[in-house]
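Side project, low priority. Logging it here so it doesn't get lost.
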Amino acid sequence: HRDLHSFPTRRSSDLRDVIGHYDADLALLQEVDSLAKRSNNHHQVDLLGEMLGFRYRAFFPNVRLRKGGAYGNAILSRYPIVEAENIDLTIPARKRRSVLHSRIRLRVDKSGHTRSLHVFNLHLGLSGRDRKIQLRKFLDSHPFVHFESKTPVLVAGDFNDVWGTLGPQLLAPAGFAGLKRPIQTFPSYAPVRALDSLYFRGEIELIRVFRSRLKVARQASDHLPLIADLKIC
């Protein structure tokens, strides 16, 4: 299954072109607008879903905008989202942060056998101390803390992980594997920072992951998207 992870966008048509080019089964997006003046008052998760034929969608607004509307995390899926919830990672007196969780039911073989994939789309803070606190909150949260070790879990998004320490320090001890080496995604016009990443655990295999080189991807966002091919074992 092909997963496309992208960062904030206001240009729905550009993001449509990027996701459409890679024929993604899942798209994990951050800073997606809802009823915001800057994005023509669209509810972007539904607009993109209709443009691209994603029947299943999850969205949670994190930040309210002064001029009206809000933005937050979104998941688009070609497979049924059987449940979705938002896990609050906010630290008091800090900007609101969260991880959006969706349980997605996948058909894994031609006989019709299905299996659940738990997808967590997160957007962590700008402070290194905050990011560690937020990630620990996630690891201690329901439902994650109750998962069996074989349960397929994907965690992806904007980690804002400037130094690349979150994976080795917090996710690896929790049983997660990640990228063999960081992929630079920010800023999109000349990427030098690997702020975006993905981690996986359980009976799931990463086939390949790469950074988009499409010109339209540089226009759609200030971060380049990561495209990953994943296999549920």
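Brief comment: The first strand starts at residue 2 and ends at 6.
Revisit when time allows.
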